[in-house]
Amino acid sequence: MALIVDVFPARSDNYGYLAHDEATGKTAAIDAPETGPIRAALEARGWTLSDILITHHHQDHVEAIADLKQAYGARVVGPAAEADKISGLDELVGDGDTVTLGETSFQVIATPGHTLGHIVYFDPHGRHLFSADALFSLGVGRMFEGTPGPMWEGIKRLRALPDDTLVYCGHEYTQANARFALSIDPDNRALQQRADVVNSLRSGGRPTIPFELGEDKRANPFLRADAPELARYYGLEGADPAEVFAAIRKGKDNF
């Protein structure tokens, strides 16, 4: 049986996600950005929260842990590398570990950079990737704690996942990401087409999430830091792609 993913807005620009294992009825919140929207989504679906899967320690991803744990007695799983920064964790996981939700298994992949201990959860059977602030639609998270080399290596691991993977990221940043991407990669036809779709969705008040990873591989400059045209844009021909990645990240920071 399948994993059902419910998508809903939280806070000002976060997304909340409920992952529901049909076979067993177990339901996980992916991160805990805000109590009210998560409880409302559970009630609308008639689901009971059994688990909370945390990706990193930032407040807009952990704020509701205590409330939800008290209300539902949910198991809270999170990154071992950030255990000292997150209250209420019951189970610590890291790169290569597996987290089960009923009959669904998530692979844990380390994606350092946005925070040093950031992890993502990938369901290889259903092709669902919960990337939080590691990978956005047409972008990546701001590099608050990490360095370009390890962050690029983590992004490459996500890029290697199947093209038909559906990506559920932490925020609705796609339109702004598209504007930046077009400024440095203006001749990319896949990016142009994607930007048109994004603008249409947002003008209609619709989300751009989830998105197909394969589309992002062709359009997201951060996933293409080893493309010669992006190296040329920054005058870094022949440089290590991690240097190009760093230049793209700095460019987005200042855009």
UniProtKB/TrEMBL annotation:
Keyword Metal-binding: yes
CDD domains referenced in this protein's UniProt entry, alphabetically: hydroxyacylglutathione_hydrolase_MBL-fold
CC cofactor: Zn(2+)
Positions of the Metallo-beta-lactamase domain: 13-171
Cofactor note: Binds 2 Zn(2+) ions per subunit.
Binding site for Zn(2+) 1: H56, H58, H114, D133
EC number: 3.1.2.6
Residues annotated as binding Zn(2+) 2: D60, H61, D133, H171
Keywords: Hydrolase, Metal-binding, Zinc
SMART domains, sorted: Lactamase_B (SM00849)
Catalytic reactions on record: an S-(2-hydroxyacyl)glutathione + H2O = a 2-hydroxy carboxylate + glutathione + H(+)
Pathway membership, UniProt: Secondary metabolite metabolism; methylglyoxal degradation; (R)-lactate from methylglyoxal: step 2/2
Enzyme class: hydrolase
Domain of life, per lineage: Bacteria
Listed GO MF terms: hydroxyacylglutathione hydrolase activity; metal ion binding
GO terms (BP aspect): methylglyoxal catabolic process to D-lactate via S-lactoyl-glutathione
Stored Pfam families: HAGH_C, Lactamase_B
Family statement: Belongs to the metallo-beta-lactamase superfamily. Glyoxalase II family.
Function: Thiolesterase that catalyzes the hydrolysis of S-D-lactoyl-glutathione to form glutathione and D-lactic acid.
HAMAP family: Glyoxalase_2 (MF_01374)
Entry-linked PANTHER family: HYDROXYACYLGLUTATHIONE HYDROLASE, HYDROXYACYLGLUTATHIONE HYDROLASE GLOB
Subunit structure as annotated in this protein's UniProt entry: Monomer.
The name this protein goes by in its record: Hydroxyacylglutathione hydrolase
Primary gene name: gloB
